[in-house]
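Q: My labmate handed me this sequence with no annotations at all. I'd like to see what the chain might look like in three dimensions before we decide whether it's worth expressing. Could you predict it?
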Amino acid sequence: MVCDGYTEIWDLKSGELLKLDGARGTTLRVTRGTLWLTQEHDTRDFVLTAGDVYTIDRGGMTLVEAQSNASVCVLARYVDAVRVPTSRETWVSRLRHWVPSVAPTLERRRVPYF
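A: Here is what I predict for the chain of 114 residues:
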């Protein structure tokens, strides 16, 4: 199997966000999909695709977001991963909810034209 020897396997949906606290030394191996990763006090961001392996080199907070459905093999002594609920509502669906709330104010009044 692809993840032999790893301690955990994460299956992430597109847009799912994980907060890893104190994950220094944790190794992530992406087996499917694309991840975006950023670390506290680090100006670099990383985009990892299938086949990439990355070891977190800083303490503090690390954010990992799935850019597409992804599977990740995790090698760590202990990882405190918190899944952050995300609302990936598109602007179209937001507009669809907003328009009925303002529709009464958008009604045109008939004015005689001479």
